[in-house]
Fold this protein.
Amino acid sequence: MQPVSQTGFRLAPGALDAPAQAVLLNEVLEKAATAPFYRPVTPGGKPMSVEMTNFGPLGWMTDAGGYRYQPTHPATGQPWPEIPEVLLRLWAELADPEVPPDACLVNLYREGAKMGLHQDRDETDFSLPVLSVSLGDTAVFRIGGTSRRDPTTSVRLASGDVCLLAGPARLAHHGIDRIIAGSSRLVPGGGRINLTLRRAGPLA
Ligand code: MD6
Ligand code: FE
């Protein structure tokens, strides 16, 4: 895993090979059959261009009530499906061997979807990293610093890449400028799926 800068942003290009990507994608789509992707709405009432679902005990969501983690799918009322085992292993290896993640946000980007610059700060504790796995079309990822005005750099995240926001970068601003449509054939119907693993609740 290579540090991209001194900030704690780390990138493991191709951490998942093509067969592992296909197996994980199938598992994600299977679980998404019972916890369907939906289009979230910002607290300000704007529909996001990204579609979302979650795996694990807690799922991140946004609606008129604000940003939060909750144990059930907003449309089905059912608990989120379990986090895929391969992701738990990646977390233990690259993020933290002791404390498991309790939340996995799944973002689906169809052509034209993007995500504005944000911080991940709805978790109880910021001492553990956030680990991200990319599947499908390449994304143009932008990362800056803890202040919104800090300079940013652009990094491409391709299918199978794993990246980590750790240490000082845990609260760095980041977002997805755009998806390079057609750069991968992995996701049926085209696009990109990103999975972010977090420890959202208290550490113990
Ligand atoms: C995405 N990623 O790659 C959006 N958050 O689609 C994130 O928002 C993100 O990549 C925290 C840590 C790593 C990430
Ligand atoms: Fe994020």
In short: The chain is about 15% helix and 30% strand.
